Each structure stands twice: as structure tokens, then as C-alpha cells.
TrEMBL record:
GO terms for molecular function: potassium:proton antiporter activity; sodium:proton antiporter activity. One of its GO terms (biological process) is regulation of intracellular pH. Residues 708-822 form the Cyclic nucleotide-binding domain. The chain crosses the membrane at residues 6-24, 31-50, 70-89, 101-122, 128-149, 170-191, 203-228, 240-268, 288-308, 320-341, 361-380, 392-421. PROSITE patterns: CNMP_BINDING_3. The gene is nhaK_1. Keywords: Cell membrane, Ion transport, Membrane, Sodium, Sodium transport, Transmembrane, Transmembrane helix, Transport. InterPro entries: Cation/H_exchanger_CPA1 (IPR018422), Cation/H_exchanger_TM (IPR006153), cNMP-bd_dom (IPR000595), cNMP-bd_dom_sf (IPR018490), RmlC-like_jellyroll (IPR014710). It is found in: Cell membrane. Its main location: membrane. This is Sodium, potassium, lithium and rubidium/H(+) antiporter. It comes from Jannaschia seosinensis.
Amino acid sequence: MDIVLVTTVIASLFLVIGAAEPLAARLRMPYSVILAVLGILIGAGAIFFLRTELTDALNPVAEAILGLPIRSNVFLYVFLPTLLFQATLGMNLRRILDDWVPILVLAVVAVVVATLSVGYALAWASALPLAACLLIGAIVSTTDPSAVVTIFRSISAPRRLARIIEGESLLNDAAAIALFGVFMGFVMLGMPDPDLDEALSRFPVLIAGGAFTGWLAARVAVWMMALFSRHELAQISISIALPYLAYIGAEQSIGASGVIAVVAAGLTLNLTGPGRLPPQAWANLREIWDVLAHWAGALIFILAALLIPRLLEEVRLEDFVLVGVVILAAIAARAVILFGLLPLLTALKLSPEVERPYRVAILWGGLRGAVTLALALAVTESFRVPDEISRVVGILATGFTLFTLIVQGTTLRTMIGWLGLDRLSPIDQALSRQVVAVALQTVREDVARTTENYELSHDTVRSEAKRFGVRLDAAVKSAEDSADILDRDRVTLGLIAVAGHERDTIIERVRDRTISARMAEQILSDADRLIEGARSQGRSGYNRAARRSVAYGRGFRVAVLLNGRLRLSGPLARMTADRFELLLSQRLILRDLGTFIDGRIRRIHGRRVADLLHELLARRIETVETALEGLRLQYPGYAEKLERRFIRRTTLRLEEREYTAMREDGLIGAEVYTALMQDLDARRAVAEERPHLDIALQRAELVRQFPLFAEIDDAVLKRLGRALETRYVNAGEVIIRKDSAARSVFFIASGAVELETAGQTWRLGRGEMFGQMAILMKKARRAEVRAIAPSTLLVLDEARFRRLLDRSAALQDAVRASAEKRGVDPDDLF
């Protein structure tokens, strides 16, 4: 085939891709539907011109279109890794992990249910062997969520819902393709009735092998990219190679799932890349992958759609009945998941509640597309698959895809409108009227200052001011008419606005490099949780998310366990350093939110709401300060090092801004500017390195700070430092339960606890101890102790505590004072 002609056809396809997006926006239809329709029209047109006797002038073009080397391997080995890898890079992993249970259950269970439903329905309605029917079921189980997610974003649907749909679809494709490989093997071996137990037993092996291959490939790639830290193009080139090598390595080397390998590689790079690569290099890498995925997604739709006319050439009347069976079985299987399994997960508190209208939209928005067609094409190309099975697989997969694209895709937005999802709630409508009124008042003030500065014509200014005043009066009247919004709703809306501004501020700080890229994802995830918590549960949800942002997570607890049991201090040191940086960044951001509340929230929602938001913000700042102070007490020198690092990074950012301004003003030339920036980049690379945290050295210093241990000599202090175990507890966590056995004494290194016994309550803070009364009185514990702030406790077992008590007069005095406060005779303790 003439290379010039092929190049012309491919370049023309890019013109089609460029025109499809604005056409989809104009027609208010999903982008994928427009691409598929255009591809079908191009393919049908090529067949028409090649076979018609009207003209032969377009025969070379038609032959070039129909002769394009479109094979299933092109889709599976070229386009599919690109789409999957970019999808994983674009995910917020921390938020995905929040919902890993519903995502994993929905993905895996949905694929299995759809495969079995379609497979057994076809086996009942046709003469096809069960293996072929299950193969078709696996093929049509893949979903394309782009249409419904795009619409959900345009109507401000809950972010968490869109995230679950995207995550479920990603794993859905991986699981479906893995099952496809299993049943394809049965069909090619001529096994009409496969043993499902054997088929499903191979499924975990495919997933585990692919996951390990992808993880290993990504770790090697990240190591290489870190070596080339000053060569951005080299890093991007390595990232381009990663998904393809992971896919081929898994498929060809160990016979595992290449799709799972690509997903695992992308997730690993997403998790480790921001901390190992320069911020700008990571941002550029993701932008390039966004472009590659856009092209790959568009080309896979168009090229797959080109094949549809050929796949339908041998269609028979009875095939339409089987297509109907596939449609009904697939929709029924999806409905079982959405209206049966999803509410069950919600009842078990494993998934957020998804309202019925959204579930209907997800059901109708489950479009199929290029992946389904690519898998069907792989079947039709295989010479080891019987001709009749090959023909039916191609027709049923194609017919089902056309139904989802043409029927469901074109009516999806109408369905959204019919469900009322595109209409604002009464609260949002009232809020929008108040926002317009406040915005117009601000605009009037700014315009008045502008006209004075430019000395415009008085008559013109007065005429325009009168015209604008009419609109402003109408907006103010409309806002006053909606004054019946409850304060509770105003607080919720205010919290959402404050959390949204917090997120915007974080992004700006990351762009300015005040906050490191390493911590950006975690801080942004915390801000997203604040937004979603406020949307779903108002003030209580916001407060719960705020407490979680400073709480000790499961990973931190595992790191503490590794350090205490196995003496592996590396994970704990790294996570403690992350916590330091996180709290410092949160404090920096929170102190900027008060101005936003006074400048915006007060004008929209009034003084009462603004004062309440200030109170909530003050509590957050106090909680962050308490947690940060606890870390300062534990690691005094390290906090100072981090603050110095922050100052140096801020100085470098301001210095860069000055050089850029001088360059734009023509005060310095390009050569001088380049030399200055090279020197600045070298100093920034040093400033970006986070100081090392030595857990062991800081532990001895922490014990030395306790007033109770002040009189103990250094030798005993060292032994005590080794004997004490560190325990981290979150606010609300029960430390000691009533009637539990007394085996340990607790010393508060940071934070605060609340002790309740016999209807009385005491609060204890840093430097105090608890748990000693039950040990000394040799009785079961009668008190319940609960943390009221993120706290760090030092735990000492009974035997060591008694030996220490005999040596320390200060400790004896503290025990006596504690006993007197609780009405216990101190002489009964000794």
C-alpha cells in the first residue's frame, strides 16, 4: 500500500478527531458516540464507493481506508496500554483507596455476574456451546464510563460517585479481559462445556502475576527516572516505555494479565513518582500522557467503528433475536449490581449512598465501545475458532455495542433531564441568587473605581451605571426573596465554599513550590474529603474529615509496629517526616482561610454563619497546632530543620519571580537569565531534599523532657528509653476500658486524654500519667480512658514501673497527688 496514501488517511483521521469534540458539544451528545458514528460512516462510505459503479475516482482512497492494518493486536498492544496507564496516572489514589471496597466488589462481581448472565442466557436461547456463550459474556462486560462521568461532572454530581464509577470501570476492563483470555482458551481448545471452578481458579493467578509484574516494572522505571533527575525528556521517555514493557512482559513471559500489569505499573508510578521526580517534570509527564490518551481513545473508537460494516455483512434474521437476548441479560445483570449489591454495601457502610436517580443514570449510561469491538475482532481473526462461532461473536458484540452507543448514548442526556439530575436543588438555587447579588455589588464598586481612574465621559458613566443598577436591584430583590434558607443549610454551603477555597489555595501553593509535590496529593485528598463530608453530612461530616486529616492512619500504626517489633525504623521515620510536613502545610493553608470567610462568606451568608465558620476554623487550627506541638516535643531539632527548609524554598520562589520579571522587562538578557536560573535550580535541588529523621536519637531526648524523669541519671534514662514503648492514638479512641486487666502505665508525651470513673471526669495532658492506680491497688481497672486529641503515649510495663517508682521521688509525689485528687489514701498504694 502506498505510504503517502496511508499517511494521508491517518492525518485525515486526526482532522476527524479534531472536529468530533466541538460537534459533540454542539449536539450535546457523548464524544464517544460521535466518534463511533463518524467511524461507521467512513467505513460504510468506503465500502459504498469501492462497490458502486457510479465512479472509480475514489477507489484508491476507499481501498486505503479498508486496507488499513487494523488488527486486534493493534488495539490490545498499542492503544489499550495507553488508555489504562493514563487513567491510573490521573487518579487520586488516596481517594480511590478510601472507596476500594465498593470499587473492587463492583468491578469484579459486576464482571462475573454479567459474564454468567449473558453466557447462560445465550446458551438457553441458542445452539452455541457454553464456552462460546461465556466468551461473549466476557466481551460485553467491559464498560466505557466516559459519557456518564462527563455528564455527572457537568451537573455537579457528587465527586465520590464519579470516582467510584471511574475506578470500577478501570478494574472492570481488567477483569473482563482476564476472563476473556480464560474462555478464549477453552473455545480454541474445543471444550464446549468448561469447568467454571477451573476457570475461576485461574483468575486470581492471572491477576496476581500481572500485579507483581507491573509493580516490579514500575519500581525499576522510577529508579531509572530518579537517576536522570536533571533530564526531563529522558524521564518522560522511560514513562512511555513502561506500560508497553509491563504489558508484554506479563502476557508473553509469565502468561499473566497484561492489563493488570499496566494498571499496577500506573498505580505504582502514581504513588511513588511525585516524591521522586521534580514537580514540573511530573506535571509535564502527566500532560503528555493526557494528550497520548486523548489520541489513543479517539483513534481506537474510529478505527474500531470502521470495522463495524464488515462485521455485520453476514448478519441473519435470527441474530437480531440473540442481540436482544444479550441486551436484556447485560442490562439485567447491571441492574442487579446497582439495585441489589450497591444498596447492600451502603447498608454495611462500605459504600456511600447512591440515590436512585443516579443509579438509573449509571445503568443507562453503561456504554460499550472500542474495547468490546477489539476483543470481538480478536475472536474473528483467530483461525482456531470455528467459523460459525467467530461470525456470531462478531455480530453479537457489534450489535450490542451499536445499541449502547446509538440508543443509550443518544438518549442519555435526555434521561438525565427526565430524572431531574440537571436541575439545581432549591438550596443551590437560593444560593446562586445570593451569590449573583454579592458579585454584582462587588462589580459595581470595582467599575466605579475604574471609571474614576480613566476619567470617562460623565454621561456615558451615568447611563451605564443606571442600566447596571436595574440589574443589581433585581438581583438583590431575588436574593431577599430567598431569605428562608435555614442557617444549617447556610453553614453547609459555607463549609463547602471554604473547603473549595482551601483546595484552590493548596494548588496555588504547590504551583509556587511552597508545598512540596510529595505532599500535594495527600493534602488535596484531605481537602476533597472536607468538601464531600460537608456535602453529604454538613457540619458533622466536615468535622469528621477535619479530624481524619490529622489522625494517625493505618499505615502509621503498621510503621510503629515494625519499629517496635522488628526494629525497622525506616518506614516510621519516613511517615513521621511526612506527618511533620503535612501539619506544617495545613497550618500554612488554614491561616489564610479567615480572610476568605470575612471577604466572601460574610457577604453571602451573613455574620452569624461567618462567625460560626471562624469558630470551626479556629478548632481546626488548634487541633493542627496540638498535633504539631506534640511532634515538636518528640523531635525538637527536626521541626526547626523543616521550618528552615520552608523558608529557603519560599526565598527561592521569590527570587525566581524577580528574575522572571527582570527578563520580561528587558533588564537582563536571555543568557544572563539562563545562567541565573541554572544556579537557582541547583540551589533548589538542595533545598527540596528533606532532612533525615533519626527516630532512636529523638526517643532519648523525648524521655529526658519528662518532668517525672528529671532526677534520674543518664544511665537509667537510657535503659528507660529502651523499655518504653510508643503508642499513637487518635481523638476519640479508647485507650483503657473498664474492668480490663492492669498491666501497663501510660505517660502522655503529647496530646490529651479524658479519664472517667464513678461518674467523675478528669482531663490529663502532657507530662502526666494514668493507669498506675489499678496496678498499685492490684485491682481491675475501674476507669475508662479516651483520647480527646491525637496523642503520643509512652507505655511502661508493670514490673519496670514498680522498679522505677522505688527509685524516683518525683514519680512517688506524682502518684500521691493523683491519688489525693481521686479521693484515695496514698498510704494504701505503697
